[in-house]
Amino acid sequence: MGYGNTGAGASEDASGYAMPDIEDLEANHDPLRLAPGKLRAKYALDKAASGLLFVALLPLFAVVAAAILIEGPFSRESRGPVFVSQERLSAGRPFRMLKFRTYYLSDDEFLKHYEDTTFFINNRRQTRVDRMLRKHYLDELPQLVNVLAGQMSLVGPRPWPAKQYRETLERGYIGKRLLRGGIYGPVQSTKGVTVKNRLGLDDALVAEYARRSALGIVLVDLRILLDSVRVIVRGDGL
Fold it and tell me: What crossing angle do the helices spanning 199-210 and 214-234 adopt, rounded to 10°?
């Protein structure tokens, strides 16, 4: 699935995604900010769909929570809360992103130098239930609450902690600044596909949104969600 041609300055990655010229995006004065109404339908549908999904998936929430808690009596290191959160930035705004806990809290003191990065969560020893959860992205399900709160979107660039967010902007990539962070996005939907520049996928999504109508944006999201479902079913999350 490609996001279409983004103009004369665009180049196409081997995966089929059209990579926009970053200077062209900046020269267009952040097109999405000039037409914020185009995103209203997207974010309204996000909340409606997230509410339905949250209710439908409550039994799965209960099963995952039980699996995390049941491990505690068998391993002291496994004990801890069902949910964890980390401060992330979504379209430049800080919020606490929720996850199911899939790691040992005892590693905190050894990973302080990673505290303001995704590595603080990703580079940890995993609990026994972790592999199944992360493989199928089940640890991300609590972020439906973030979407309901208007902090995230179902589809968008993955929200990063402040340090990595700033580094991304300094390198010239603006996608994370223009769109709400997503539970799923172009990076997740291309797991298992060769992509030369994954950071550029967020900007490719911005360029695709900018040239489409409000309905067109929703259709792009549906395509990405379908691709993400395939990734989830295959278990490509790790």
Answer: 150
Per DSSP, the three-state class of 191 is coil
Return d(Cα 186, Cα 156) in angstroms, integer: 7
Read off the tokens for 125: 């020893």
In this structure, are residues 78 and 128 in contact, taking their beta carbons and an 8 Å threshold?
Answer: yes
Residue linked to tokens 């550029």: 200
Distance from C-alpha of 162 to C-alpha of 10, rounded to nearest angstrom:
28
Please give the Cα distance from 76 to 74 (Å, whole number): 7
Assign 23 to helix, strand or coil. helix
Strands 93-100 and 18-19: unpaired
Instruction: Tell me the CB-side half-sphere exposure of residue 206, using CA atoms within 13 A.
Output: 31
pLDDT in tens, the chain (238 residues): 454 444 434 445 544 445 444 444 444 445 555 466 788 889 999 999 999 999 999 999 999 999 888 876 666 666 788 999 999 999 999 999 999 988 777 766 777 776 777 877 776 777 777 777 888 888 999 999 999 999 999 999 999 999 899 999 999 888 899 899 999 988 888 776 666 777 788 988 988 888 888 899 999 999 999 988 888 888 766 6
Q: Please tell me the distance from the alpha carbon of residue 156 to that of residue 141, in angstroms, as a whole number.
A: 15
**Which residue is it, tokens 């089929």?**
16
Name the nearest CA neighbour of 50 among 206, 160, 179, 156: 156
The answer to whether the CB of 89 falls within 8 A of the CB of 181 is yes
Q: Angle at which helices 214-234 and 40-56 pack, to 10 degrees?
A: 30
